[in-house]
Specification:
It is built from 24 helices and 23 strands. The chain has 722 residues and is of the alpha/beta class. It starts with a strand and ends in a 15-residue tail after the last helix.
Length: 722
Amino acid sequence: MAGWIYMVTSAKGGVGKSLFAHNFALALLRETRGRVLLVDMDLDYCGDGGLALNIEHPKRTMADLAGLLDSLLPNMLRGLPDCHSSGLHFMPAYRRPEEAALLTGPVIGRCFDLLAKGFDAVVADLSTGFHPANLACLDCATRIFMLFTPDVLSVAHTGKGLETLQHHAFPQQMISLVLNRYDPRGDYPPEMIQARLGRPIQGILPNEPEALAKSLTNRQPMLLGQPRNPFSRAVDELAGTVWTNEVSTPRPQRSRAIREFVMPVVAPSSSPTGIPTDQAIRPSASHTSQQADGDRLDAVKLRIHERLVEEMDLKRLELEAVHDARLAEQFQTDVRKVVDRLMDEEGERIADRDVRTRLVMEILSEALGLGPLESLLADESVTEVMCNGHDQIFVERKGKIQLSGLRFMTGKHLRGTIERIVAPLGRRIDEMSPMVDARLKDGSRVNAVIPPLAVDGPLLTIRKFPSKSLQVEDLVRFGSINQAIADLFNFCVRAKLNILISGGTGSGKTTLLNLMSSFIPHDERIVTIEDSAELQLKQEHVCRLESRPPSLEGTGEITIRDLVRNSLRMRPDRIVVGECRSAEALDMLQAMNTGHDGSMTTIHANSPRDALNRLETLVMFAGFELPSRAIREQVTAAINIIVQQSRFPDGSRKITHITELTGMEGDVITLQDIFEYRQTGLDEQGRVVGHFVASGFIPRFMNTLEAKGFTFPREIFLESYE
């Protein structure tokens, strides 16, 4: 059982906050007929409460209590605070100002938790404003009283203070506005103030300067020395109203909000409910209740999101803010204010501040970010995110696909997220163009498909770009390559061999291309060409080109082939094409054959021989009726080695073949493996076990390169080297 905790604060000083606090505590004492504690928590100047109650030398302080937290029980609190003759207990924050440093946020929380167990009601007089210590106190509150006076400056400060509390997820229902020093003859009546603040005033205290001055002089609270004064009657009435409402509700279970909210990563499970499949047939009552709560919160989120879209043209405002940091910051601030207000209106019955904070952040993620994808993109263990409609989000972790347990509210929200990704890039997705490739700011690759092509709702696939680029040492540690292969790659790139990286979907071709490109010397001019720019080369002289889809009118398309042709006029030392998918294969081969040695690209294929067959097919897409032999001769002359990358059932990715093109026999291109990976079995965890084997074949290109002055230890190629 916990008592009520009332925090008295203000957004501006000099509004009579402390006088209200000790008189309100006395009024509560009369109402509760129980144990009431007044705490002077003004850390800037502690002492007003003691002066008002004529307690100059307190027995214990909150700083003292902080040192006893681990040894005190609630029933031991009875004799700690000073007790006024009225029966009101009192405790200041400290005796000496330097003791305020002991009252950190966590300590304050533990102190009030303990006090709430020992007293029926606790009233805390805070300092002005919303600094961290005050927020730590407010985190413990079951009700907050915000005092102000009927002047323009005080009302304006109070409006800002309400926005601050709203921003920190304090429900509107737990904040009571109290107007102090009200004079009916004044120019700022309560009705006008309520309209200005957009909140009702719960208490109006009349201006009685002479009576209050006399009270302070006599060190006797108004409720004791002048109980019939209008000020005293107003405080009594407010305390009666508040306490009547409190006793009609269950005792509060305070819940502190998380200051920096991070979307939770839901642990994968074998069923969407998070319960093992064999136990999910008949949900428990608690699970059904949780699901009902989840549905209720989803309904609140949906209503707020729909109202937000109605009130703000999010798409237009976001596009305007894309290239202007100032507009972007203002846009986010404006959206947050609207969401906070709508949460007060739509989430009126949600008192748990943790839940409110989570809902606000989820709504902001939907409106400004990528919704439930934000947490998955922040999770370093997730390498791929796959949305099969709005209610199924799968992820890949360590090569294994798992159901995440997260979801979008509706297909419309998933569609909005897709549009938010592609719009800043000048891409579009609609019924006329229902497929799109794009990228996120961090370089992650995005593919989206919407109806009518996607039958069951929008499909979104994100191949995450690692926050830290993988180095050679990482691939060696992962077992993707060994040190001998790493040394060979370095040598081949520096010696300007033309390299074709082959592999299936998700085998790690782009990662390997990025790694091998890092071996290019820094004094060379590199041109990279991609559909969606993913390569992150660290050299100084890099020109990045990206293709462009057609406009709404079907014009303005720039293909990979156009960019390859154009790159030849850019005086490149190296051309790196993210992937050959079509007719650009012919232009790439011609570039490799006309002095642009050291170029690299990738291709989808399951083996080195399949890579050559696919390359030949792609060249035919160029529309020239070239005989197969002529194409194969071009391929043989252009490409030096093929690096085959594969993904194994355990999710690991490894180089399975490094193969040299050695020439032609008749109409067939001859190949010779230099290294290959041999799998020997699986370990107890189901992981692939094997090793890299040198074939014993000395590559033919070694003679040519050694004649040019490049040296490399030949013993690496010997079968017995490893």
